TrEMBL record, chain A:
PANTHER family: ACETYLGLUCOSAMINYLTRANSFERASE, EXOSTOSIN GLYCOSYLTRANSFERASE 1. The keyword Chaperone does not apply. Signal peptide: none annotated. GO terms for biological process: heparan sulfate proteoglycan biosynthetic process; ossification. Pathway: Protein modification; protein glycosylation. Its cofactor is Mn(2+). GO terms for molecular function: glucuronosyl-N-acetylglucosaminyl-proteoglycan 4-alpha-N-acetylglucosaminyltransferase activity; metal ion binding; N-acetylglucosaminyl-proteoglycan 4-beta-glucuronosyltransferase activity. Residues 475-736 form the Glycosyl transferase domain. InterPro entries: Exostosin, Exostosin_GT47, GT64_dom, Nucleotide-diphossugar_trans. This is Exostosin-1c. Coiled coil: none annotated.
From TrEMBL, chain B:
Residues 256-283 form a coiled coil. GO terms for cellular component: endoplasmic reticulum membrane. This is Exostosin glycosyltransferase 2. Residues 101-381 form the Exostosin GT47 domain.
C-alpha cells in the first residue's frame, strides 16, 4: 500500500514535469541559448550584408596613387625638423650629425674620449667603460676624425646623495669647444634621480646627446636614439667574464624551486608597492619569495607589523643556493626599474620573470627579449605563479638556453656591454650596412658578426642550419709560399698536383711571401683549376687577409711543404661541410695550464686530447679571414708579424672564442711535413721538436717553440680568458682500418698513410 | 486532498485483481515519461539550434538598415591621444585576465549610422568595403567574442580608415558615445590614411583618448612604441590583379620608380640617376594622354611608352618607394606583391608591423638625403642576398599585406603577443617563409654545451628474459669508470626479474624498472631514474662490449621520443617490435639537423653464441621490415631528416704507432 502510494506520487511528479517541460518552452529556450552561448557554438557574428558588394572603397585608386604631394621642399623640411625635434624628441635624423661619420665602415665610426682632468674622481665602473672604448677598434685620439664623443667626466652615478656624484657637470661641458649642444655625444649613466622619486633626471642638461642609461623608462626613452644598458656592479669584469652557469640540460628541466625572490622590501617611497606585495606568493615550498626590511640606517623607524616575521624567514634561505636551484627568478623593480638581479639570474640560467612596468629592457633595439625572459606585469603579481607553471618543459629548455646565449654574447663583461652599445649606434649610422635581428639573436651573437663583410646570412658560417641550407660544394686552396721556386721537384709542386686533383677544388691561390719576386706564370705546372699568385708583402698575417679572390665559402689553408693525399683532402672537406663553423684539419696541438709557472703552456706532444689544429693544413670558413683581420686588434696581429709565428694559434683562439667549441682533427696524419724518420721518434718523446741540423725549418727551432708559449699567454690575456677547448676524438672514414675488404672502402689511401 | 482520497478508495479494488498488471502499469508509465523526455530533448536541442543560428545569419540586412544615431552638438569630445600612453599605463589588463589559451577576446560594436543634429552623416563614405572585410575577418577568427562583458579589446564599427572622408569633431563625438568607451580604454581604431592638408599629420587627427591606434604612416614622433601598431596602407589593386609569384633572380631593370606624384626635387635626383646609369634605371610617370580613373591607375608611361602597372614591377630587382605628403604609401604593398625589393626613402617612417617583422631582410631603407647614392648602395648588396630579399618581400606580402583579413589578424596577434608575452610568436615564426621553416632546424637546445665529465652517463639495458646474458652485460658495463647508474628495463610481464641477491654485485646503483607491456619503445621512455644527460642504450645480447665503448644518446631525445614523436610512429614501432633505433635516429636528425656520430670501428654488436631463436635481429623478416620502416618514417616526417656522412669518431691516438699504455682508450678495436 505504502509502496504503491509512492509509485503513484512519483508518476504524478513525472507527469507534472512533462507538462512543465512542454508548456514552459520559453524558459528552456532561454536556458538553452545561455548554455550554447557559453560553449561558443552560436556567436553573433558580424552580419553578412546584402549590399556588401556595393560598399564604397575606403579610398579611390587615384587618391592612393596620386599622393597630394608636399608643398614644401623635402630639403627645407628636413632642415626645419632639427629645429623642432630636439632634446626629448631627438632622433638620429634630427640630433645626429652624420657628416662627421662620412667614411665607410669602421673608418667612419671613430670614438673620441675627452681627456679627464687631474682632480677628477672616476669611479671603477666608469674607468672600465673608458678602458673598453680605448682598447676597442673604434678608438681615436684625434677629435677631428671622431664620429662619436664620450665624456671624461664620470656621469654614471647622478644621485646627489651618492659619494660618486660629480658636481658642476653643466658648467664644465659647456666649456668644451666640441660640445655643440651634445650632438654626437654619448653619455653613460647607471643611476639617476634621488630619494624619494628616483626620476630619470641627470642633474645636467644633456642637450642632444645620446643617452646610454640603465633603468630607462619607455616614456623617456627616445626610440632609435638612446640605448638602454643593463645595470652592472663595479665588480663586473673588464673583459672575458664568467661563463653562464648552465653546463648541462636536465630533463625534465624543472629545478627544486619553481620561482624565487630574495631581496629588500621598501617600506616607503617609489617601488614599495611592488615589493610589499611579493610576500603574497610565498609558499615556502616551491615558491620562495622573501623580503627583508633590514636595510638602510633607520629601517626600524618605518618598521611595520610584518617586518619581524619576514626577517626571520629571510634568514632561512641562501640567495646563491636559490639562484642555482630555481627554475624562474622574479626580477621586480627596485627603486629604479632595473636591478643587479637581472644580470645575476641571466647568468645563473634562472629564467627572469620581470615585474618592472615601463622598463625599456637592455639593448631592446636588437634583442628579442620575449624568447629569453617572461615579461610579467606588476599589476598581475598574483597571476605569476600560474603563468610560470603553465610554461611547458620545452619552452623552459629554450628560454634557459637563450639566457645563456645572451649572457655570453652581450653581458658577461663591461667590454661586451660597451661594445654592444657602440655597435648598436654604428648600425644606426650606417643603416644599410647593418646587422639584422637574426644576427643579433642567434649564436654567436651580433658582436662577432661584422656587417661590412656581408649583410647576407648565408655568407656566414653560423646560420646554415637555421636557414635550412648547406655550405657550398667547393673550396679554395690558399698556399703560403716562403721559399723561392728553384726546382720542379719542390714540395709545393707536388702539393699543387694533389690539391688540384680534388674534385671539390675550384681555385688555388698562392700567397707569395718569399724574398724573391714571384716566378713567371710559365714556371707553374698546368692546372685543371685557375691558379692565382698574390703578393703577401712578407707578412705572416697576410695568409689570413680576406682576399677578394676567394670566392668559395671553404678555404683550405696550406703551407708550401705540406704533404697530403687527395683523398685526405676530400675527406676533410666533407667533414668540414658537416661542421662549417669550426676548423677542420690534420696536425693537432694542445694547450695546458702549468700550475708551477702559473701560465698557459703549449705542447706538440702526441697526447690523448688536442685543442689546436695547425692551419698549415686546415679547412675553415672564409669569414674567419675577415674576422682575423678586422676583429682582432692591431697589437695581436703585429706580434704575429714581428715574430713570423703563432698565426695558427691566434686563428684557433679566434675560432674557438666564436664557437666555444674545439677544432676537429681528421684522419691519422700527425706529421704533415716530410721529415727524416728519426725525427718522428723524437717528436713523440721530446716536449719540443728539437732541431738536428734543420735550422732552415722554422718550427724545428727551440726559439720558435718558446715564442709560441709566450704567444699563447699573450693571446689569452687579450681575450680575458682561455677560449681553447679540448677535444678527445678525431674523425676517420667509417670503414677506417676495419677488417673488411679494401675494395669496399672509399678512402683506401688513408690506410697506408 | 480530494484526489488522494479518490485514489485511495479505488486502490484496494484494483490491487487484488491484478498484481502483475500493476507492474506493467508502472513500466508503461515510466517508458512514456522516458520517451517524452527523449522526444523533448530531440525537439529542444536539434531544431532549436538551427533556429537560433538562423536568427543571425538569415536576417540578411542592408548596411542602410543599421540604426540611426543623432549626435547632439553638445555631446562630449574625447581628449586628443596621449603620447605617453603605454600598455601598462593606458591599457586595462584585468579585462583580458589569465586564460589557458593565451588569446585575447575582441568585441565588435554593432553597426550604427551616426548623423549630426541636422541629419548629415559624420562620414562621407560610411562603412567602406575594406573596413567591412576587416570586421568580418575578425568576427570569423578565434579572437572574436560577442559578449561585451568578456571582451578585452573593443573595435568600434565606425570606419576611420581614411581621414579625408571624416568629419573629425563629429567622429570623435560618436566614439565617445560608444557604451563601453570609458576614456578609450582597450579600444582599437584602424586608420590607413591619416592627416589632411596642408601639413598631413602622421597619426589620425580624431581625438581618441587612450584608444590604441593601428595606423598606416606613423612617424617616429607620433608612434607610441609598444602601444600603437603600425600597419600597411592596403592597396585595393592586390584584390584585382593576380601577380603570380616569380622566381627570385636578376631582372630586366635594376631600379624602378613607379610612383606618380613625386616631389620635383626627388624627381630631379632620380632623373640624374637615370642619366648616370641608363637602361638599368626605369623612371615611370603618369600617362598624360589618359584621363583620371581606374584605367589610368593601371598604366604608367615613360616617354610615350606605356607600361602595365603593377605588372611592370615584376621586371625590376629594386623598386623605389618614396614618401609623399604621407609617410605610408600603398605602393609598398604593390611592390612587395611583385616580389620587388622595396627601397624605402621616408625618414622617420615606422615600417608596417616593424615590431615583429625584420625589414632589413626584405627591404633597403635609405635616408632621403642619400637618394643620390642609391645606385652604389644597392650595387653593394650581394646577389644572393637580393634573391633572398625578393623571396622575403613576397612572403611578407602574402602573409601580412595581401588582404584586410591578413592586416587585421596580424594586428590582433601583435597585441595578443604583448598581453601574453610568454606565449608570443617567435622571430622565426614571424619572419621565416614556410619553405625555410620546413628545411631549417630550430632546436630548443641550440647551445653547444660541453658537458662536464663528472656526472657520467646512465646505461639503459632493455631485456626480455635472457638473464644470463644480461648479467654478463651488467658486469662488463660496470667496469666503465664514467658509469653513474644502471637501469634495467624488464620488458617481460609474465616473468618477474630475478631476486636481488642473484644480481651481480656492482659499484654503481642498479635499478630495475618493470614495464606494463612488452614494447621496444620502452627503451626510450624518459624514466625519472635517469639523472645524467648522457644515456647509453644497449641490448641485453651485446656481450662483446669492451668497457671503453660508449654510444651516447641524449636524455632530451628520450623525452621527445615519448612525448613529441610525430604521427603514429611510436605505435608502429610498438606493433612491429622493430626499428625503434631507426625512429630515434630520425628524431635526433630532425631536431638537430645533424647526422649521428658513429664511434669506434665496431660494426658487429652481437656475439656468435647468442644465436638464440628469440634474438630479434635474426628474424628472417627483420631486414626487410627495417627498410620498410625508413620509408614509413620518412613519410611521417615529411622529409628525409637522416643525413649521410662518411666520418666516424675515433680516439685521437687510435691505431697509432704509439705505446698502448699512454692511450686513454687502448681497448678499442681489440675485438
Amino acid at each position: 500500500m505504502q509502496a504503491r502510494k509512492k509509485y503513484v506520487l512519483l508518476g504524478l511528479c513525472a507527469c507534472c514535469w512533462l507538462v512543465l517541460f512542454y508548456l514552459g518552452g520559453g524558459i528552456q529556450l532561454r536556458l538553452l541559448r545561455w548554455l550554447t552561448r557559453h560553449r561558443g557554438e552560436v556567436l553573433r557574428h558580424w552580419p553578412n550584408w546584402t549590399d556588401r558588394a556595393f560598399l564604397p572603397r575606403y579610398a579611390h585608386l587615384d587618391e592612393l596613387q596620386t599622393d597630394p604631394g608636399m608643398a614644401e621642399s623635402p630639403r627645407q623640411r628636413r632642415q626645419a625638423w632639427s629645429a623642432i625635434y630636439k632634446d626629448s624628441r631627438c632622433r638620429m635624423e634630427t640630433c645626429f650629425d652624420f657628416s662627421r661619420c662620412r667614411r665607410r665602415g669602421r673608418e667612419g665610426f671613430r670614438v673620441y674620449i675627452y681627456p679627464s682632468e687631474k682632480n677628477d674622481r672616476v669611479s671603477e665602473s666608469y674607468r672600465k667603460i673608458l678602458t673598453s672604448i680605448k682598447e676597442s677598434r673604434y678608438y681615436t685620439s684625434d677629435p677631428h676624425e671622431a664620429c662619436l664623443f664620450v665624456l671624461g667626466i664620470d656621469t654614471l652615478d647622478r644621485d646627489q646623495l651618492s659619494g660618486q656624484f660629480v658636481p658642476n657637470v653643466d658648467e664644465r661641458i659647456r666649456g668644451y669647444p666640441l660640445w655643440n649642444d651634445g650632438r654626437n655625444h654619448l653619455i653613460f649613466n647607471l643611476y639617476s634621480g634621488t630619494w624619494p622619486n628616483y626620476t630619470g633626471d641627470l642633474g645636467f642638461n644633456i642637450g642632444q646627446a645620446i643617452l646610454a642609461k640603465a633603468s630607462l623608462n619607455t616614456e623617456h626613452f627616445r626610440p632609435g636614439f638612446d640605448v638602454s644598458i643593463p645595470l652592472f656592479s663595479k665588480d663586473h669584469p673588464q673583459k672575458g667574464g664568467e661563463r653562464g652557469w648552465l653546463v648541462r640540460n636536465n630533463v625534465p628541466p624543472r629545478r627544486k624551486y619553481l620561482l624565487m625572490f630574495k631581496g629588500k622590501r621598501y617600506l616607503t617611497g617609489i617601488g614599495s608597492d611592488t615589493r610589499n606585495a611579493l610576500h603574497h606568493i610565498h609558499n615556502g615550498k616551491d615558491i620562495v619569495s622573501l623580503t627583508t626590511c633590514r636595510h638602510g640606517k633607520d629601517w626600524e623607524k618605518h618598521k611595520d607589523a610584518r617586518c619581524d616575521h619576514d626577517n626571520l624567514e629571510y634568514e632561512r634561505f641562501d640567495y646563491q643556493e636559490l639562484l642555482h636551484n630555481s627554475t624562474f627568478c622574479l626580477v621586480p623593480r627596485g627603486r629604479r626599474l632595473g636591478s643587479f638581479r637581472f644580470l645575476e639570474s641571466l647568468q645563473a640560467a634562472c629564467i627572469p620573470v620581470l615585474l618592472s612596468n615601463g622598463w625599456e629592457l637592455p639593448f631592446s633595439d636588437v634583442i628579442q627579449w620575449n624568447q629569453a625572459v617572461i615579461e610579467g606585469d606588476e599589476r598581475l603579481l598574483l597571476q605569476v605563479p600560474s603563468t610560470v607553471i603553465a610554461v611547458g618543459n620545452e619552452s623552459i629548455l629554450a628560454l634557459r638556453q637563450r639566457t645563456q646565449m645572451l649572457w655570453e654574447a652581450y653581458f658577461s663583461s663591461v667590454d661586451k656591454i660597451v661594445l654592444t652599445t657602440l655597435e648598436i649606434i654604428k648600425d644606426r649610422v650606417f643603416s644599410h650596412v647593418s646587422r639584422n635581428k637574426y644576427m643579433w639573436n642567434s649564436l654567436p651573437g651580433g658582436l662577432l658578426v661584422l656587417p661590412e663583410y656581408s649583410t647576407h646570412l648565408a655568407h656566414f658560417p653560423f646560420y646554415y642550419l637555421g636557414l635550412g641550407v648547406s655550405p657550398g660544394q667547393e673550396f679554395t686552396a690558399v698556399i703560403h709560399a716562403v721559399s723561392p721556386l728553384v726546382s720542379q721537384s719542390q714540395p709545393i709542386m707536388k702539393l699543387l698536383q694533389v690539391v688540384s686533383k680534388s674534385k671539390y677544388c675550384t681555385q688555388i691561390i698562392i700567397l707569395w711571401n718569399s724574398e724573391k719576386p714571384p716566378p713567371s706564370r710559365s714556371k707553374w705546372p698546368p692546372m685543371p683549376v685557375p691558379l692565382t699568385v698574390t703578393d703577401g708583402r712578407r707578412k705572416t698575417t697576410s695568409r689570413f687577409l680576406p682576399h677578394v679572390a676567394i670566392e668559395t665559402e671553404a678555404v683550405l689553408s696550406l703551407d708550401e711543404d705540406t704533404v697530403l693525399l687527395t683523398s685526405e683532402v676530400n675527406f676533410a672537406f666533407l667533414v668540414w661541410r658537416s661542421f662549417p663553423e669550426r676548423i677542420v684539419g690534420y696536425p693537432p696541438r694542445s694547450h695546458f695550464w702549468d700550475p708551477l709557472k702559473r701560465a698557459w703552456g703549449y705542447t706538440s706532444k702526441w697526447t690523448n686530447d688536442y685543442s689546436i689544429v695547425l692551419t698549415g693544413a686546415a679547412f675553415y670558413h672564409r669569414y674567419y679571414h675577415y674576422l682575423f683581420t678586422h676583429y682582432l686588434p692591431q697589437s695581436l696581429r703585429s706580434l704575429v708579424d714581428r715574430t713570423s709565428n703563432c698565426e695558427d694559434i691566434l686563428m684557433n683562439f679566434l675560432v674557438s672564442a666564436v664557437t666555444h667549441q674545439p677544432p676537429i682533427k681528421v684522419t691519422q696524419r700527425k706529421q704533415y711535413k716530410e721529415l727524416p724518420s728519426s725525427q718522428i721518434g723524437c717528436l713523440m718523446a721530446c716536449p719540443c721538436p728539437t732541431s738536428q741540423g734543420m735550422k732552415s725549418v722554422p718550427w724545428a727551432n727551440p726559439e720558435h717553440f718558446n715564442q709560441r708559449q709566450e704567444c699563447i699567454n699573450f693571446f689569452a690575456n687579450w681575450f680575458g680568458y682561455m677560449p681553447l677547448v679540448h677535444s678527445q676524438f678525431r674523425l676517420d672514414p667509417v670503414l677506417f682500418k676495419d677488417q673488411v675488404s679494401i675494395h669496399r672502402k672509399k678512402y683506401k689511401d688513408l690506410e697506408r698513410a | 486532498m480530494y484526489t488522494s482520497g479518490k485514489y485511495s478508495s479505488r486502490g484496494p479494488a484494483l490491487i487484488p485483481r491484478m498484481k502483475t498488471k500493476h507492474r506493467i502499469y508502472y513500466i508503461i508509465l515510466f517508458s512514456v515519461v522516458l520517451l517524452g523526455l527523449i522526444a523533448t530533448g530531440m525537439f529542444q536541442f536539434w531544431p532549436h539550434s538551427i533556429e537560433s543560428t538562423a536568427d543571425w545569419t538569415l536576417d540578411r540586412h542592408s548596411v542602410h538598415d543599421a540604426p540611426l544615431i543623432r549626435l547632439p552638438v553638445s555631446s562630449p569630445i574625447p581628449e586628443r591621444g596621449d603620447l605617453s600612453c603605454r600598455m601598462h599605463t593606458c591599457f586595462d589588463v584585468y579585462r583580458c585576465g589569465y586564460n589557458p589559451k593565451n588569446r585575447i577576446k575582441v568585441y565588435i560594436y554593432p553597426l550604427q549610422r551616426f548623423v549630426d543634429e541636422l541629419g548629415v552623416p559624420i562620414s562621407s563614405t560610411g562603412l567602406s568595403r575594406e573596413y567591412n572585410d576587416l570586421l568580418s575577418a575578425i568576427s570569423d577568427s578565434d579572437f572574436y567574442t560577442d559578449d561585451v562583458t568578456r571582451a578585452c579589446l573593443f573595435i568600434p564599427s565606425i570606419d576611420v580608415l581614411n581621414q579625408n572622408s571624416l568629419r573629425i569633431r563629429e567622429t570623435a563625438q560618436a566614439l565617445a558615445m560608444l557604451p563601453r568607451w570609458d576614456k578609450g580604454m582597450n579600444h582599437l581604431l584602424f586608420n590607413m590614411l591619416p592627416g589632411g592638408p596642408p601639413d598631413y599629420n602622421t597619426a589620425l587627427d580624431v581625438p581618441r583618448d587612450r584608444a590604441l591606434l593601428a595606423g598606416g604612416g606613423f612617424s617616429t614622433w607620433t608612434y607610441r612604441q609598444g602601444y600603437d601598431v603600425s600597419i600597411p596602407v592596403y592597396s585595393p589593386l592586390s584584390a584585382d590583379v593576380d601577380l603570380a609569384e616569380r622566381q627570385p633572380g636578376p631582372r630586366r631593370y635594376f631600379i624602378l620608380s613607379s610612383q606618380t606624384a613625386i616631389h620635383r626635387e626627388y624627381r630631379a635626383e632620380l632623373e640624374r640617376l637615370k642619366e648616370e646609369n641608363g637602361e638599368a634605371v626605369l623612371l615611370l610617370d603618369k600617362c598624360s594622354n589618359l584621363s583620371q580613373g581606374a584605367a589610368s591607375a593601371r598604366k604608367r608611361c615613360y616617354k610615350g611608352q606605356v607600361y602595365d602597372y603593377p605588372q611592370i614591377l615584376q621586371e625590376s630587382s629594386f623598386c623605389v618607394v618614396l614618401r609623399g605628403a604621407r609617410l605610408g604609401q600603398a605602393a609598398l604593398s604593390d611592390v612587395l606583391q611583385a616580389g620587388c625589393v622595396p627601397v624605402i626613402l621616408a625618414d622617420s617612417y615606422i615600417l608596417p608591423f616593424s615590431e615583429v617583422l625584420d625589414w632589413k631582410r626584405a627591404s633597403v631603407v635609405i635616408p632621403e638625403e642619400k637618394l643620390s647614392e642609391m645606385y652604389t648602395i644597392l650595387k653593394s648588396i650581394p646577389h644572393r642576398q637580393v634573391e633572398e630579399m625578393q623571396r622575403q618581400a613576397r612572403w611578407f606580402w602574402e602573409a601580412y599585406f595581401s588582404s584586410m583579413k591578413a592586416i587585421g589578424l596580424t594586428t590582433l596577434q601583435i597585441i595578443n603577443d604583448r598581453i601574453y608575452p610568454y606565449a608570443a610568436r617567435t622571430y622565426e615564426q614571424w619572419n621565416h617563409p614556410p619553405v625555410v621553416k620546413c628545411s631549417s632546424v630550430n632546436s630548443p637546445l641550440f647551445l653547444p654545451l660541453i658537458p662536464p665529465r663528472t656526472p657520467g652517463f646512465t646505461a639503459v639495458v632493455l631485456t626480455y628474459d635472457r638473464v644470463e646474458s644480461l648479467f654478463r652485460v651488467i658486469t662488463e658495463i660496470s667496469k666503465v669508470p664514467s658509469l653513474a647508474k644502471l637501469l634495467v628495463v624488464w620488458n617481460n610481464q609474465n616473468k618477474s626479474p630475478p631476486e636481488e641477491s642473484l644480481w651481480p654485485k656492482i659499484s654503481v646503483p642498479l635499478k630495475v624498472v618493470r614495464t606494463k607491456e612488452n614494447k621496444l619503445s620502452n627503451r626510450f621512455f624518459p624514466y625519472d631514474e635517469i639523472e645524467t644527460e648522457a644515456v647509453l642504450a644497449i641490448d641485453d645480447d651485446i656481450i662483446m662490449l669492451t668497457s671503453d665503448e660508449l654510444q651516447f644518446g641524449y636524455e632530451y631525445f628520450n623525452y621527445l621520443y615519448t612525448y613529441k614523436m610525430p604521427g603514429d610512429i611510436k605505435n608502429w614501432v610498438d606493433a612491429h617490435m622493430n626499428c625503434e633505433d631507426i625512429a630515434m635516429n630520425f628524431l635526433v636528425a630532425n631536431i638537430t639537423g645533424k647526422a649521428p656520430i658513429k664511434v669506434t670501428p665496431r660494426k658487429k654488436f652481437k656475439c656468435p653464441e647468442c644465436t638464440a631463436i628469440d634474438g630479434l635481429s635474426l628474424d628472417q623478416t627483420h631486414m626487410v621490415e627495417r627498410s620498410e620502416c625508413i620509408n614509413k618514417f620518412a613519410s611521417v616526417f615529411g622529409t628525409m631528416p637522416l643525413k649521410v656522412v662518411e666520418h666516424r669518431a675515433d680516439p685521437v691516438l687510435y691505431k697509432d704507432d704509439f705505446p698502448e699504455k699512454l692511450k686513454s682508450f687502448p681497448n678499442i678495436g681489440s675485438l
